[in-house]
Amino acid sequence: MVASKLSRKAKTGLISVAAAAAELKLSSRDAALKLGSLARRGWLQRARRGLYLILPLEAEPGRPTVAEDPWVLAQEAFAPCYIGGWSAAEHWGLTEQIFRSTFVITAANIRAKATSLLGSEFRLFRVPRRRLAGAMTIWRGSQQVLISGRERTIVDCLRNPELCGGIRTLFAMLRAYTSSPEFDPRKLLAELNKSANGAAWKRFGYLFELIDPEHTSLLKPGRAKLTAGNIKLDPAVRAKGRLLRGWRLWVNVGLSSENDEA
Q1: Taking the CA of residue 57 as centre, how many other CA atoms within 13 Å lie in the half-sphere pointing to its CB?
Q2: pTM of the predicted model, to two decimals?
Q3: Is 148 in contact with 88 (CB distance < 8 Å)?
Q4: Considering only Cβ atoms within 10 Å of each terminal Cβ, which end of the chain, N or C, has fewer?
Q5: What is the fold, at CATH topology level, of the domain defined by 2-54?
Q6: Residue 65: helix, strand or coil by DSSP?
Q7: What is the chain's percent helix, strand, coil content, to nearest 5?
Q8: Which of 40, 49, 164, 62 shows the shortest CA–CA distance to 117?
Q9: Is the distance from CB of 142 to CB of 210 less than 8 angstroms?
């Protein structure tokens, strides 16, 4: 039976046109027509163009079925991509905040920043393909998924605090990381040197100085990397705030443990 063959190839119930074509030994066009036919007959549910969910036998007719694992769904639906931002921060224990949607950093062509597939909500952030390099692999059940590591997650959010829900969450993430057994200054500095832009270095220097002003092995490189111009601590906040000349930063959000002077 065709559905049985597709099930063997599926990833947590998900089957793409390309995977179906390989399993059924069909052209991509014929595989797409076959999957469309199975969906109309109630064997599959379309997740998005080129991707289907194989419905379990106990599924109620006409009732939407939820994907088993939204991370695996993201890997299939938005490839090339990795799980990042607040979702990666939750996974690594860097934040206690609970976010409803899964954050996906992708190089795929996307039409919207937020979407819902098979009962799961996704927040999407597009980057050039080269920015996907360096993601690590973890297991989700029997499937492998790409995710940003602790240091990469922090640097991504330093580049754009929107990825973690704002600068206050980022500050809490950085404090959680630096107080954890996994804190590795050399790995953090290596990731900063690899992935940080000028804005990320400025935010990092300011935030890390609040946490550990004596840690010169990280603060000194930060000062050496300062670029021209002043940027906002949190670009999503309209207020300009006060200018901290030492880090060329408009401090427009109040943070605890703040003890600096402009």
Answers
A1: 3
A2: 0.86
A3: yes
A4: N
A5: Arc Repressor Mutant, subunit A (1.10.10)
A6: coil
A7: 40, 20, 40
A8: 49
A9: no
Give the Cα separation of 66 and 63 in Å (integer).
Answer: 10
DSSP 161-207: GGGGTSHHHHHHHHHHHHTSTT--HHHHHHHHHHH--HHHHHHHHHH
Please give the Cα distance from 180 to 202 (Å, whole number).
23
107-155 pLDDT, tens digit per residue, is: 999 888 999 999 899 999 999 999 999 999 999 988 999 999 999 999 9
84, 163 Cβ separation under 8 angstroms: yes
> β-strand 51-54 against 102-106: which pairing, if any?
unpaired
Phi, psi for residue 189 in degrees, rounded to 5: -65, -40
Is residue 251 within 8 A of residue 241, CB to CB? The reply is: yes
Domain boundaries, the chain: 2-54, 69-148, 178-262
Rounded Cα gap, residues 36 and 168, in angstroms: 46
